[in-house]
């Protein structure tokens, strides 16, 4: 069984997740800021990270990418549709807020282009393209372990915002209904902010997903 550990990082408390196996290999999902906290957790657990995976390229999910990539010499994975976003504040959203510095991150090492099974070391997951919050939003589904990393596509009782660059409520709702709510009802969905949820819970209680 894989182990999932969560920490809230950065100015808007973005969820970063560390997924590890019994051999202490680990994946880092969405290291939004505060790389020192990520390193401290990895060291406490004796984990060796082998990749950084990004659900999308908004500033609050990418702030510690270069720091951790350089520290551990590991590749960064991102959807091809957002390949230019890491280094451009007008696209990653940091340029929208005067109180924030401009986030300029180096290019991703691996660009993901289609839905498929992805293997990284001992880890196997399905890529689910879930656009709407952003055009290149990806959910990473670990079928055997019954969970998915869904970024800012779906939250407990809510959905991702769609008022940023290339956001679309229509696409977002389609992604949620076709890709996430069709997963087994007990699948644990780990979002970019807030507590985890399940498809069954969201079908029953999410006001944004009620059929008109």
TrEMBL record:
Residues 188-212 are annotated as: Disordered. SUPFAM superfamilies: Metallo-hydrolase/oxidoreductase (SSF56281). Its cofactor is Zn(2+). CDD domains: metallo-hydrolase-like_MBL-fold. InterPro entries: MBL_Glyoxalase_II, Metallo-B-lactamas, RibonucZ/Hydroxyglut_hydro. Keywords: Hydrolase, Metal-binding, Zinc. Gene3D superfamilies: Ribonuclease Z/Hydroxyacylglutathione hydrolase-like. Residues 13-193 form the Metallo-beta-lactamase domain. Residues 200-212 have a biased composition (Basic and acidic residues). This is MBL fold metallo-hydrolase. It comes from Metaplanococcus flavidus.
